[in-house]
Specification:
Blueprint lengths: L2 E6 L4 H9 L4 E4 L9 H9 L4 E5 L12 E4 L15 E6 L2 H9 L4 E4 L13 H10 L4 E4 L6 H5 L5 E4 L1 H5 L1
Parallel strand pairs: 1-2, 1-8, 2-3, 3-4, 4-5, 5-6, 6-7
Length: about 170
């Protein structure tokens, strides 16, 4: 089974249905500005005990029980390892420089984006992704962006991926 990450920024009935259907997926929650006290995150944790839950770019998460870790977006340039010492860190990157930044921050998994065609960004493609992965064999590097068919990435031996549309179209 592939290690999969579903990136969400709001809570809706559709998202709850996706989470119930896919109980083994990891959830990366990027809260919107209205969710200042993480109420939606707490709802996700309480209703989806089989999913691992990560919160994006937050530094006030310590009291939330059930949280698996923290997601550092490619735009987050802070070195947050001391703040989140006991949490798993996932990061995203768009370049070699950003991959190195996430390694320095001690991210366990790095999501490289965009790998396949998306609505608004130029993609690097699976072959280039695999070549970049060989450069960073000591860290888990997963594709993010444009993944609509996991058979395509599974055929290349990729062990995980992250996305939004893939889960919502299932």
């Amino acid at each position: 089974m592939l290690n999969s990450f579903y990136i969400i920024s709001e809570i809706s009935n559709q998202i709850y249905k996706v989470l119930k259907k896919n109980s083994g997926i990891n959830v990366i929650y990027r809260p919107n500005k209205q969710d200042k006290d993480n109420n939606n995150l707490i709802k996700i944790i309480k209703t989806n005990i089989h999913n691992k839950v990560y919160i994006a770019n937050k530094n006030n998460i310590c009291p939330i029980q059930g949280l698996t870790g923290v997601y550092l977006s490619a735009f987050n340039k802070k070195n947050l390892t001391s703040i989140y010492f006991n949490k798993n860190l996932i990061g995203s990157a768009h370049s070699f420089k950003e991959i190195r930044e996430k390694i320095k921050a001690r991210c366990n998994i790095i999501l490289l984006s965009p790998v396949l065609p998306t609505r608004d960004k130029k993609n690097i493609g699976l072959i280039k992704f695999l070549l970049i992965s060989k450069q960073f064999q000591f860290v888990k590097l997963y594709p993010l962006g444009g993944i609509l068919n996991i058979a395509k990435i599974r055929n290349y031996g990729i062990k995980g991926f992250a996305g939004i549309r893939y889960f919502e179209k299932k």
